[in-house]
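For reproducibility, we list the full input for the zinc ion complex.
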Amino acid sequence: MDDERRVIEPGAVAIAGDRIAAVGTPAELREMRAKRTVDAAGMAITPGFIDCHNHMFQLIARGLGEGMALWPWLASFMWPLSIQIRPEEAVAAARLASVESVRAGFTAVTDNHYAPTDADTTLAVAGALETVGLRGVVARGMMGEPTAVARKGGLAGEMFRYSADEELDITRACMQARPPGSRVAVWPAPENVIYCDQDLIRRSVELARDLGTGWHTHCSEVRTDPEYYLEFYGIRPVEWLAREGLLGRGATIAHGIFLDDSEVEAIGSTATGIAYCPASHQYIAIGVMRLRDLRRAGAVVGLGTDGASGHRQDPFEQMKMAVLLQRVHSLDPTAATAEEALELATREGARYLGIDAGQIAAGRLADLAVIDLQRPHLTPRLRTVSALVYSATPADVVMTIVGGEVVYEDGACTRVDEAEVMAEAQARAGDLVRRAGLEALREPWRRTPALPA
Ligand SMILES: [Zn+2]
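The corresponding predicted structure, in tokenized form, follows.
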């Protein structure tokens, strides 16, 4: 995934400290002295995968909320859960999702955390990611005061618990505690351009620029998003972001599906980041991102797992779906390629997050995944890129390295006890679902609507 996209077979990588020292064939690197040598014969070494949009706390209720459109999914499932979730539950979920992530070869994550978002919990969630060994960002979700659009969508309520001033004060304190350059930094994240107050969004971007970080939000995720925005503000949402000068370096937007041509151009010409979450987009049936148009225009597109609607921290599933969704939507088998999917999951994700990773090249951060190709579903090994995108699974990852440190190896995380992390999440989930009044969503078998009984 370097600038020349070299596929070096057989290959070798040398690491010194937290950086890649050399890349080449085993013969070229034979003279190098190492404290430890890993025999990766029959395996692929890729840049660590980068998750550009997640909500790790949501994973504590994964599996519930079936068959709903997005805003009802939020209003009747995710937000009642978010209002009830306790700090220790959010941290347990973040630890669980982090363990799952490093097992799958993810090395960096953008965790859009929005429940609960007091300073202590926000920082504890960042600590949970770091404890497991991930790199990345906790993008602290901010609601501010409910807007007319939020009311129209049935989203006003207890989620809007802080004023804009309080939101920004808490976020600033968290950003100062975990400034840019931290293994896990904190960014401001006005939750959604559509239903958050315009002033909160403007001030969030000012805060990010002031402290030298990126910022994160959701925008134009469902078809009604630009329609509501036009109705209330007389302008399309990305057009507004462009007019206010809010796009560009540091701006990272989840979804960006319903964009007109001028909005695609505005995002592209400013190299704004967009998180493409193909599993989530299909699960909630929201739409298909204009991947080719956005990339051609210059947008920085990465892949995201998107919390409970993505179900799994799995870069392989996201890469495969990223391609297949584009193809079936356009009825064009050239609409996206396996090579492109690997770019989104690695080097483009690194550009999106602003980290010096995503490529195996001397001088870059040593964030790597080692994937065992000696499996029936990866045999014969004729084209490694195809094997990685279409056939591999997280279970094929045998080692994950972040900043030169092995954080997952041979079936176990090196920094935390996985059994303990799972047991805690399992024990807490039932109680939370009960308190949130969501017990009915646990029905063991849901009859498929519109089919005879
Ligand atoms: Zn999201």
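The longest helix spans residues 418-435. The two ends are 52 Å apart (CA to CA). Both points were considered when choosing residues for closer inspection.
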